[in-house]
Amino acid sequence: MSANLNTKNKLQKLFQLTAGVSAFAWIVALYTLWHRQGLLAEGAMKPSFCNMSSFLNCDAVALSAHSEFLGIPVSTHAMIFSFLLFLLSLVGFFNVLEDKSKMPSWAAKLLFALSAIGLIPTVYQAYVSIFVIQALCLMCLTSYILNLVLFALSWKLKVETKSLPTESTLSGFKTFSQVSWIVVAVVIALHFITPAVMMSSLGGAAAGRVDSKYIELVIQKTDGMTPMRFTDDGKSPSFGAAPDQAKLTVVEFSDFQCPFCAKSAALLPSLLKQYENRVRFVYKNYPLDASCNSEMKHSAHPLGCKAAKAGVCVHQAKGNAAFFDYKKEVFANQKEMTAESILVSAEKHSGTSRADLEKCIEDPAVAQKINADVAEGSVAKVQGTPAIFLNGKFFESGPQPVLLQAILEHYLK
To answer: What is the pTM of this model?
Structure first.
């Protein structure tokens, strides 16, 4: 090789580093795809680890219509992009080892070209995430940073190989055998079927087996429902558009001890965020606990009323944001729920003392608020939780992401 030993060692390290970063970027994209397909297949049993706030919210980004391009998840495109960079890095590295002076230069130039092109969707996705969806996924942010690092590394490789002999791109392609091209094509093809395989393995009843005809039937059935009228006077927790500006109002009757309500609680805020200027969400209590729900003959969830009353106290003390933080925490720790854990969460989010909190929970006015919610649910013939109503019409399919997103789009078009 015409380059000196120092240059050879530097090129080896750069190609190795580029391959390592590409591999890590591929893993990040794979996790992002798995997270998205899991949400679509079975919803969310609890919020993602990177749902840190309404802005730092992986679920909101994953459930956005912008998470696909040409009908293929953006994360799949990212995996293919990372794989190609990884492959070119290996080609360059092994040709440095074999003292082929032309191939490293060709591989470096192609690496630079691909990484530069990759900056275009990177910048676009970042813009859409921050200014359109108004939420940022930490895994996506990691991908953006890795793409910038890959661009910097490929630029460095291009500079380091500038003095080496080069050959045309066509000549470089001809150095690969037919078998090599077949292997690359097969690997890329496997990337395209990965989303469907993931959906199936994750138990995709809500997505893998929900076709367009079934979605149309659900929409038709929901449209045919008699709309109910619910009180929205600011006394119930809510978020999104103002009552007079909302094109769609989503009312949910929920129980803090209900497992399916926990799934809905993890899904709905992220799903509705992308429509927050047009959609209003209103939370209603319907604890399956006979101690505060006269419709119940026995207490299926004996802590339901206590959690509901504590939530009312949090809302009265600190408003909507504090209530939804309380709701998120209680549902996230639902399996370990105790009377004490409810009080600890409510005390934390209400900012009141334990004595004042317990006094609030025992206040007849709080019981009256729960009774009012239950009475509205009774009139609407709520028989279980979660019960979701879209502009007063019962959505009986429950918290299924694909169906919910389709019907939201239907009402907002």
So the answer is: 0.66
Q: Enumerate the β-bridge partners of residue 73.
A: 68
DSSP track, 121-190: HHHHHHHIIIIII--B-HHHHHHHHHHHHHHHHHHHHHHHTTTS----HHHHHHTS-HHHHHHHHHHHHH
Q: Alpha-carbon distance 201 to 232, whole Å? A: 41
- Report the C-alpha gap between 36 and 275 in whole angstroms: 18
Contact 35, 67 (CB under 8 A): no
In angstroms, rounded to a whole number, what is the distance separating the alpha carbons of residues 368 and 343?
20
Q: Give the 3-state secondary structure of residue 394.
A: strand
Residue 320 φ then ψ, to 5°: -65, -50
SS3 content of the chain, % helix, strand, coil (to 5): 65, 5, 30
CA 351, CA 33: separation in Å to the nearest integer? 39
Please give the Cα distance from 231 to 319 (Å, whole number): 17
Nearest Cα neighbor of 232 from 210, 209, 248, 214 is 248
Say if residues 14 and 161 touch (Cβ distance below 8 Å).
Answer: no
Q: Are 220 and 257 in contact (CB under 8 A)?
A: no
261-319 residue pLDDT tens: 888 888 888 888 888 889 999 999 999 999 999 888 888 899 999 999 999 999 999 99
The strand order across the sheet containing 387-390 reads 238-240, 279-285, 248-254, 387-390, 393-395
In order of their start, the domains of the chain are 5-201 (1.20.1440.130), 212-412 (3.40.30.10)
Contacts of 68 (CB under 8 A, 6+ apart): 74
**Exposure letters 290-309 (e unless 16+ CB within 10 A, then b):** bbbbeebeebbbebbbbbbb
Token pair of 96 as six digits? 């440095």
| Residue 326 structure tokens | 């309380």
Q: Work out the number of other CB atoms within 10 angstroms of the CB of residue 70.
A: 6
Please give the residue that has the higher pLDDT: either 171 or 403.
403
CA 275/CA 114 separation, integer angstroms: 35
Residue that the structure tokens 């750069």 belong to: 14
3-class secondary structure, 240:
strand
More reliable by pLDDT, 193 or 388:
388
Q: Are strands 68-69 and 72-73 parallel, antiparallel or unpaired?
A: antiparallel
Please check whether residue 146 is in contact with residue 28, taking contact to mean a CB–CB distance below 8 angstroms: yes
Kindly indicate the confidence band of residue 206, based on its pLDDT and cuts at 50, 70 and 90.
very low
